[in-house]
Specification:
Largest sheet: 5 strands, parallel
Strand order of the largest sheet: 5-4-6-7-8
Shape: globular
Radius of gyration: 26 Å
Distance between the termini: 77 Å
Helix content: 40-55%
Length: 639
C-alpha cells in the first residue's frame, strides 16, 4: 500500500500493518499518541479545533478540553471505547493554518467538529511590526484620509469580514466531511485590566488625554466614582471612537465597584473591542464582539449550534461579569471553568441529531479533575501572566490580586518550593534558564517556562515575599539576602536597569523598538509611551548609589524628575539630543527598589501624525504612539 495522506497539524501519517494511522510524538499534547484514519465499527468521533484555550493551557497536558470532553461523553455510553475525542488544537494558530488543519481533518471521518472561538482570528489585520511594506503603503492612504480613527475602522471591517469567512468556511468544511459542527464562544475575563496608551490624536489632544488619565487615577483612589466616570467620558470624547480601551476600562472598574454588573460587562466588552487594532503588543488578546457576532450569523449554516460560554458562565455564577473564578488569566479556564464549559459542550453534542449507534444513556456526566500539583502549577502560571500582561489602573489592585492567587500555593510543599525558586532565579549571578532550580522545575508542567523568564518581575517578586512572610517562612530572608548580595556585587561596576530584565512590564515596547515579541534580538533603547517609566532592582539600603542616565526627550529642553520608591530625588535637564546626567540617590531601602522617571509634558503632535503617514507611505516602520522620552542607559552604580 502506498502512503497518500497529509499531516494533520502535528499528527503525522504512517502505515501500520497496511493500515493508515496518524501519530504524534509529543506526549504533552494529550492523548492518544496513535489514531486510525478509518474509524472502527460503531465509533463516534469528535474533533476539537482551536488555539491555546482549546489546547488546555495552562492545565495541559493532563487536563485539556479534549480529555475532559472525552471522559464526559464516555460516561454516557455503555461502551466507552466507542467514543473518541481528538485534539486538533495548537496555541496561536493563524486563520489560514486553522483552515488547512480543518481541510486535512477530513481524513479522520469525524462525526462532530467542535470549533472553539479563535483568539488569533485578527492576525494579519492589526497594525503590527510584521506589516509588509506594501501594507504600510496602503495604510498610509487610510491614515491620510481618516487618521488613526480611519485605521481602526479599516481594521474592524476586515476583522468582521475575516471572522465571517472563517465561521462560514469552518461550518462548510465540517458539513463536507459528513460531520456536524458546533461553535463554542469561550468568553473572557472581564476583570482583566488594560492600561493602553492612545495613538496620536493630533494637536494637544494626546497630552490632554494623559493629563485626564492621571486625574482618573486620583479619582479612583479617592473613591470618587462620579468624577472618574466624568473623566472617562472626557477621554472618550478626545478619542472620538474607541481607540485605546483605557477609558472603557475605567468605566468597567467603577461599575464593578458599584455592583452594576451588566454595565460593568458592557464596558469591559467595549474595552476589549477597542484593543488590539493597532498592535498585539499592547494587551493580551481577548474575544472581539465582532468575532462572536460572526459565529452567530454563520450558525444557521447546516444547523450549527452555538455554545456561548459567556451565557453559560453567567448562569452558573448568577452574574454576567466574568472574573478569575472562571479564568486563570485573560481567557484560559480554571478547573471549574473548564468543567462548566465542557459540560455545556457535551450536553450540546448528545442532543445533536446524529448519535453513536450505542446511544446515550441518562447518567450524569462525570466531572474529571486534574492532579493537585497540575492545578497548583496552573494557578502559579496564571499569577505570572497577570503580573506581566495585566497593567492595572491602580498598582495596589495588582499586588492584592497576585497575593490572593498565590496564598493557596503556600499550603502545597512542592509549590512552596516553586515560589522560592522563582525568587532564587531572579539573581544576577546567572541567567534564570541556567539556574540550578530549573532542573527541579522541569518536572512540573509549565513551571520551567515561568522560572526561566528573563524578567525581574517586581510585582510578582513583591507578592511572593509578602505571602512567604505571612506564613512565617524563614527562608524568605535567606533568599532576600542572597538576591541582595548578587546585586551588590554588580552595583560596584554598575547595573543598567533600562534593560528588559528590570522593566516592570513585559509588553512595554512598540513596533519600532522591538520586532520580536520574545525579545530574542533585544532593543536598541527604551522608549517611554507613558508619562512615567519604572524600573526595579535589589539593594542593601546602606551602600551609597548614584544614577547615571543617558536619555533624550522629543521636544525642546526640559526638566525630568527622578523618583525612588515614591520619593523625589531631584531633576535632570534633558533635550532632543542624547544627554548624560548623574544624580545621587538618597531613598534606597533594603530589598526591592523602584526608580521612576517622570517625563515632561508633551507638545502638539500634528507633526508626529504627518511623519507617521510619510513613513508608512515609504513602506517604513513607525510608531503610532507618542514617545515621552528615550533611554539609552540607566545605570545604578555604587558611589
Amino acid at each position: 500500500m502506498t502512503l497518500k495522506a497529509d499531516s494533520i497539524l502535528d499528527w503525522k501519517p504512517n502505515l501500520k500493518d497496511g493500515e493508515l494511522i496518524f501519530e504524534r510524538r509529543d506526549f504533552f499534547r494529550g492523548k492518544p499518541k496513535i489514531i486510525k484514519a478509518k474509524k472502527g465499527e460503531g465509533v463516534f468521533r469528535v474533533l476539537l479545533f482551536g488555539e491555546s484555550v482549546a489546547a488546555g493551557f495552562p492545565l495541559a497536558p493532563a487536563f485539556t478540553p479534549t480529555t475532559i470532553l472525552e471522559d464526559m461523553l464516555r460516561s454516557r455510553v455503555d461502551e466507552p471505547t466507542l467514543i473518541e475525542v481528538i485534539d486538533l488544537s495548537a496555541p496561536a494558530m493563524a486563520p489560514s493554518d486553522q483552515l488547512r488543519v480543518c481541510e486535512a481533518a477530513a481524513q479522520l471521518q469525524p462525526d462532530v467538529c467542535v470549533f472553539m472561538q479563535g483568539l488569533a482570528w485578527y492576525l494579519g489585520l492589526a497594525l503590527e511590526a510584521t506589516f509588509p511594506a506594501p501594507d504600510r503603503v496602503r495604510e498610509s492612504a487610510v491614515l491620510r484620509t481618516g487618521g488613526l480613527r480611519g485605521s481602526r475602522e479599516r481594521y474592524l471591517r476586515e476583522l468582521a469580514s475575516q471572522a465571517k469567512v472563517m465561521a462560514e468556511t469552518l461550518a462548510d468544511l465540517s458539513h463536507s466531511m459528513g460531520a456536524q459542527s458546533v461553535f463554542v464562544i469561550s468568553g473572557y475575563n472581564h476583570q482583566w485590566e488594560r492600561r493602553t496608551p492612545p495613538p496620536i490624536l493630533g494637536g494637544e489632544q494626546t497630552n490632554t488625554w494623559f493629563e485626564l488619565f492621571e486625574q482618573s487615577q486620583s479619582a479612583l483612589m479617592a473613591g470618587d466614582d462620579q468624577k472618574a466616570l466624568q473623566i472617562a467620558a472626557a477621554m472618550k470624547a478626545l478619542e472620538g471612537i474607541p481607540l485605546s480601551s483605557t477609558p472603557e476600562r475605567i468605566e468597567a472598574k467603577v461599575f464593578q465597584a458599584r455592583g452594576l454588573w451588566s454595565k460593568a460587562t458592557a464596558a469591559a466588552t467595549a474595552a476589549t473591542d477597542a484593543s488590539c487594532w493597532h498592535s498585539h503588543s499592547w494587551s493580551m488578546p481577548q474575544h472581539h464582539s465582532w468575532v462572536c457576532d460572526a459565529m452567530y450569523k454563520a450558525a444557521p449554516r447546516h444547523n450549527t449550534p452555538v455554545v456561548d460560554l459567556r451565557k453559560v458562565f453567567a448562569d452558573h455564577w448568577q452574574t454576567p461579569f466574568l472574573d478569575y473564578r472562571m479564568y486563570y488569566d485573560h481567557v484560559h479556564f480554571t478547573v471549574e471553568g473548564a468543567q462548566v464549559a465542557l459540560t455545556a459542550v457535551a450536553n450540546t453534542i448528545v442532543k445533536l441529531p446524529k448519535s453513536p449507534a450505542v446511544g446515550w444513556n441518562e447518567k450524569p456526566f462525570v466531572l474529571p479533575s486534574p492532579p493537585s500539583l497540575l492545578k497548583a502549577s496552573a494557578l502559579f502560571q496564571g499569577a505570572f501572566w497577570i503580573s506581566q500582561f495585566c497593567p492595572p489602573l491602580l498598582k495596589d489592585d495588582l499586588e492584592s490580586l497576585l497575593c490572593e492567587q498565590l496564598r493557596p500555593l503556600t499550603q502545597d510543599k512542592n509549590m512552596l518550593l516553586v515560589l522560592k525558586d522563582f525568587l532564587k532565579t531572579r539573581t544576577l549571578d546567572c541567567s534564570p534558564a541556567l539556574h540550578p532550580a530549573m532542573v527541579q522545575a522541569s518536572k512540573i508542567p509549565g513551571i520551567s517556562t515561568v522560572l526561566g523568564g528573563k524578567r525581574l518581575n517586581r510585582a510578582l517578586c513583591h507578592s511572593i515575599f509578602t505571602v512567604l512572610n505571612e506564613v512565617g517562612d524563614g527562608d524568605a530572608d535567606i533568599i532576600l539576602n542572597d538576591l541582595i548580595e548578587s546585586y551588590q556585587a554588580r552595583l560596584l561596576e554598575g547595573v543598567d536597569i533600562s534593560q528588559a530584565f528590570f522593566r516592570d512590564w513585559y509588553w512595554e515596547f512598540s513596533a519600532i523598538a522591538f520586532n520580536d515579541s520574545q525579545q530574542r534580538q533585544g532593543s536598541p533603547f527604551y522608549k517611554a509611551f507613558w508619562p512615567a517609566s519604572t524600573f526595579s532592582f535589589f539593594a542593601d539600603g546602606t551602600t551609597a548609589l548614584r544614577l547615571e542616565i543617558q536619555a533624550r526627550i522629543p521636544i525642546g529642553t526640559d526638566r525630568v524628575e527622578i523618583e525612588v520608591n515614591g520619593t523625589s530625588e531631584g531633576f535632570v535637564d534633558l533635550s532632543t539630543r542624547w544627554e548624560e546626567r548623574t544624580l545621587v540617590l538618597k531613598s534606597i531601602s533594603r530589598g526591592l527598589n523602584t526608580v521612576a522617571i517622570k517625563w515632561p509634558k508633551l507638545g502638539p503632535d500634528d507633526a508626529a501624525l504627518s511623519q507617521l503617514i510619510e513613513a508608512f507611505g515609504q513602506g517604513r516602520d513607525a510608531d503610532i504612539f507618542r514617545v515621552h522620552g528615550d533611554i539609552y542607559s540607566l545605570r545604578v552604580i555604587a558611589v
